[in-house]
Design a protein that fits this description.
- Helix 1 (about 15-30) crosses helix 3 (about 80-90).
- By secondary structure, this protein is α/β, with parallel strands linked by helices.
- It has 9 helices and 10 strands.
- It has helices spanning about 15-30, 65-70, 80-90, 105-110, 125-135, 150-155, 185-200, 215-230, 265-280, and strands at about 35-40, 45-50, 100, 120, 145-150, 170-175, 205-210, 235-240, 255-260, 290-295.
- Helices cover about 35% and strands about 15% of the residues.
- The chain binds S-adenosylmethionine.
- The site of S-adenosylmethionine has 21 residues, from helix 6.
Length: about 300
């Protein structure tokens, strides 16, 4: 079950889509003062070295963050892409791209001490959960960040509804980012969203999934749309496909999607601006495409 290690994939095109969307969503939520409970149900190791054996010196990041970095920002980049690039660059102050932040550190960077935002991280892998705990311990964040070696689908339930913030409001963002290494992850995501909307209908839920020729992967966004519609909640669905170089073999992931329930109203326009640029910069040829659809 635990053959998946995110270190092999860190900084690839799927991480670019996921983390760019996460940052844009968080920025919007953080315009309001009330404290946020942030939950990462499948957290990974937190930080990744792009010059390690795992990543084979950049590996998949060469078709992701490293490719973007090779192109000098010209100041005209869409806001969400620029924001993402700046946040990642902040982990590499000497200008050499060696560290890639996973979702726990993306969220941690944006958390506000004053608002008393809280971060709850779940990771089941025996090694990655230890690495994550050690990475988080270095921050000396105390009770602001909690790490649990526990099933994130189950662990999430304890935080929905989230505890009230100092101002009395209850606000939460949940990232659900399984490895889909076992088929049962697909229906589990649907069940998790259904249950979460019952527990806390106004939470912001972000689901990442791979776009692959597998019935469960096709079915997942359809199921999530149905669940959001049944709950009367807005949704947004974005996909990024970097295609394949003509004549190359079909291996490795070339497309993925983000499905959000209760997305910020500003996100659609931000992704409609950023995704065409990403396809132009990361696109490999056959099949490259992007799409953003939403309930409104
Ligand atoms: N969210 C991370 C990021 O963006 O940096 C990447 C997470 S990776 C795609 C999925 C992680 O989920 C893996 O590290 C895997 O070990 C872990 N995992 C698998 N099943 C799990 C479960 N039921 N609960 C918590 N973690 C799980």
């Amino acid at each position: 079950m635990f053959s998946y290690r995110h270190a092999f994939h860190a900084g690839n095109h799927a991480d670019v889509l996921k983390h760019l969307t996460l940052i844009a969503t968080l920025r919007h939520l953080m315009q309001k003062e009330g404290g946020l409970t942030l939950v990462d149900t499948h957290a990974g190791a937190g930080l990744y070295r792009l010059d390690s054996d795992f990543s084979e010196t950049g590996g998949e990041a060469k078709d992701g963050i490293l490719k973007l970095l090779a192109i000098k920002p010209d100041g005209d980049w869409p806001e969400a892409l620029r924001d993402y690039m700046e946040l990642v660059a902040g982990f590499n102050p000497d200008g050499r791209m060696r560290i890639y932040p996973g979702s726990p550190f993306v969220m941690q960077r944006l958390m506000r001490e004053q608002a008393r935002d809280k971060l709850k991280l779940f990771e089941m892998h025996p090694t990655d959960s230890k690495v994550l705990a050690a990475n988080i311990a270095q921050l000396q964040a105390g009770r602001q960040i909690a790490v649990a070696r526990q099933d994130g689908f189950e662990g999430l339930k304890a935080f929905l509804p989230p505890p009230p913030s100092a101002s009395g409001s209850r606000r939460a963002l949940v990232l659900i980012d399984p490895s889909y290494e076992i088929k049962s992850d697909y229906p589990k995501v649907g069940t998790c969203i259904q249950d979460s909307l019952k527990r806390f209908a106004t939470g912001s839920y972000l689901v990442w999934y791979p776009v692959i020729p597998r019935p469960e992967a096709h079915e997942l966004p359809r199921r999530l749309k149905t669940l959001a519609n049944q709950a009367g909640k807005p949704w947004l669905h974005a996909t990024l496909n970097i295609g394949r170089a003509p004549g190359t073999e079909s291996h490795g992931l070339s497309a993925s999607g983000m499905f959000l329930v209760n997305p910020p109203f500003t996100l659609k326009a931000q992704l409609q601006a950023a995704l065409p640029t990403l396809v132009t910069l990361l696109g490999r040829g056959t099949g490259q495409a992007w799409a953003v659809e939403s309930s409104s």
